[in-house]
Design brief:
Layout: E1 12-13, E2 20-25, H1 36-44, E3 48-53, H2 66-83, E4 89-91, H3 103-116, E5 120-124, E6 129-130, E7 138-139, H4 142-157, H5 166-169, E8 181-185, E9 192-195, H6 200-208, H7 211-217, H8 222-238, E10 246-253
Parallel strand pairs: 1-9, 2-3, 2-5, 3-4, 5-8
Antiparallel strand pairs: 6-7, 8-10, 9-10
Helix pairs in contact: 1-6, 2-6, 3-4, 6-8
């Protein structure tokens, strides 16, 4: 009897023994394109989730100048977060489209980690492409790559007193070494998953809150577009999660 080599490796359930999460992404709507069903599931269970966005997405709509686009997209993000039980949404005010990986970004994320003290840090795909485990797929944006990589590094920075000592001396933010996992959404190499079923309807409504952005992104009916995108991704993960639609993450332990 030979072992079948074409069976996908099952996705493990995400750890559940935590209380606080910080989700760090580049733009408004990043968390809604796949992660919101997991967030709804977590907040339903009494867990606290905070959103931290590097930009206000002001370069995301060609027909709106940045000074008009930024407050609109911020408002949509706050409304979107509220749908899935998130009340705290913070912005770092980096310039949309030009975020660079570096010490400033690591410091700002580390400061947020120290303020909110999460056990779970959530971010978005930091690799060069979307899909294509062996290469290929669609090219990722510089902002996503920079923020995702900086979030992974900031998880350790937040616990080291001597990397950014000014966080203590100038801001009173003592080190927090309590981040136990970093979960990367949108990874081509997922290892874990969250059941998307209980939170899917709210995930669809959460993405729909980004009305101004979706209106220029597609001619498809907005609800049909949001539902087909989110359920399609969840069904892809189902094959590795016991047939249950799921939000997949690549999980790094610390």
């Amino acid at each position: 009897m030979t072992e079948r080599l074409d069976q996908p490796t099952p996705l493990e359930p995400m750890p559940a023994d935590w209380q606080r999460a910080l989700a760090v992404v580049a733009h408004p709507d990043d968390l809604e394109y796949g992660g919101a069903a997991a967030v709804a599931h977590w907040t339903d269970g009494g867990r606290e989730v905070v959103y931290l966005l590097a930009t206000r997405g002001e370069a995301g709509i060609d027909t709106l100048p940045p000074e008009e686009c930024a407050p609109l997209r911020e408002a949509e993000q706050r409304a979107s977060a509220a749908v899935v039980g998130v009340s705290t949404v913070e912005f770092l005010d980096y310039r949309d489209g030009t975020v660079e990986y570096g010490l400033d970004l690591r410091r700002d994320i580390a400061a947020a980690i120290r303020r909110h003290r999460p056990e779970l840090l959530v971010t978005l795909n930091h690799r060069d492409t979307w899909g294509g485990q062996g290469g290929g797929g669609f090219w990722n944006t510089p902002d996503h790559k920079a923020v995702g990589r900086a979030a992974l590094d900031a998880a350790a920075d937040a616990g080291n007193r001597w990397i950014f000592p000014e966080l203590v001396s100038e801001h009173g933010l003592e080190p927090w070494n309590g981040v136990r996992w970093v979960a990367v959404a949108g990874s081509s190499m997922p290892t874990h998953a969250v059941d998307a079923g209980p939170g899917m309807e709210r995930a669809v409504r959460s993405l729909l809150e980004h009305k101004a952005y979706i209106d220029v992104l597609t001619d498809q009916d907005p609800e049909e577009y949001c539902r087909s995108f989110l359920t399609g991704n969840a069904q892809q993960a189902a094959a590795r999660f016991g047939g249950r639609p799921a939000v997949a993450f690549e999980l790094f332990s610390r």
